[in-house]
Amino acid sequence: MDVVAKAWTWLATGSHWAGPDGVWHRLGQHLFLTFVCLAISCAVALPIAVALGHIGKGGALAVNISNAGRAVPTFAVLVLLLLSPLGTHGQWPTIIALVLFAIPPLLTNAYVGVREADREVVEAARGMGMTGGQLIRRVELPLAFPLIMTGVRTAAVQVVATATLAALPGGGGLGRIITAGFRLTDTPQVVAGAVLVAALALVVEGVFVLLGLVFDPLRRRTGRRSPATRRPPADQAPASPALTT
Fold first, then answer.
1. DSSP code string of the chain
2. Comparing C-alpha atoms, which of 173, 166, 169, 174 is closest to residue 190?
3. Which of 7, 139, 151, 208 could bridge to 125 as Cys pair (CB 3.0-4.6 Å)?
4. How far apart are CA 32 and CA 28, in angstroms?
5. Distance between CA atoms of residues 218 and 141, nearest Å
């Protein structure tokens, strides 16, 4: 309890929040790194997942390969990248490591969401003469939206938590507060930094839950999702036989 009280005192000290090494500056760096990594991950994973889910071919292989990447620790990937020629290019080793870490939930959820969209609705739309692009935009994506947003939310929280590794090669972010605490053998500062990262992860998750509710295209049209189009969270979604490893 003494450490917790001292950590609270550290957080309540105004001087720890100001300046280039202060919490606000480190928080800005952390959010910027998170946004960049999440944007790159979405740009890479979502188009591939949606296309594979639409055509129904090759998706299982892509998802299984991406999920296999989870077995490799992000820290190990970061170390290997730092030892490679990329290690001299600033934040890029950290960004690449975090992008690779964020791709699996994005790819898996988007693929499953599009592939498991209500087949009757999809076939009815195809029978109306919709092209492949129209089918994706107007039918499959709206139906898959909850699972896609669940993948984005999961990836965002994972990146927020793992971005603390950026401090190891000298990058910015809240991880610098933790590493500085270790260097100074200041346990309350380490605990305070961990609390800040955990709080940020919770806030980010809450923001993406809200965004999922606000921008759900079917909910915006009808006020609520019909039972036929509701999807369970990723950790409760029924496993597709094609995704079984």
1. -HHHHHHHHHHH-GGGTSSTTSHHHHHHHHHHHHHHHHHHHHHHHHHHHHHHHHHTSSHHHHHHHHHHGGGS-HHHHHHHHHHSGGGGSTTHHHHHHHHHHHHHHHHHHHHHHHHTS-HHHHHHHHHTT--HHHHIIIIIHHHHHHHHHHHHHHHHHHHHHHGGGGGTTT--STHHHHHHHHHTT-HHHHHHHHHHHHHHHHHHHHHHHHHHHHH-HHHHHHSS--GGG----GGGSPPPGGG--
2. 174
3. 139
4. 6
5. 10
- Phi, psi dihedral angles at 222 (to 5 degrees): -110, -10
Contact (Cβ atoms closer than 8 angstroms) between residue 95 and residue 89: no
Which residue from 202, 168, 171, 175 is spatially nearest to 190, judged by alpha carbons?
175
Residues 223-241 pLDDT 10s: 566 544 444 444 444 444 3
Residues 143 and 113 sit within 8 Å (Cβ to Cβ)? yes
Tokens of 1: 């309890």
- Amino acid found at 194: A
Cα dihedral 35→219→238→147 (10° resolution)? -10
At the top level of CATH, which class does the domain 2-13+20-243 belong to?
mainly alpha
Rounded Cα distance between 42 and 18, Å, is 33
Q: pLDDT for 128-140, tens place per residue?
A: 888 888 888 889 9
Spatial separation of the C-alpha atoms in residues 182 and 180, rounded to whole Å: 5
For residues 196 and 177, is the Cβ–Cβ distance under 8 A? yes
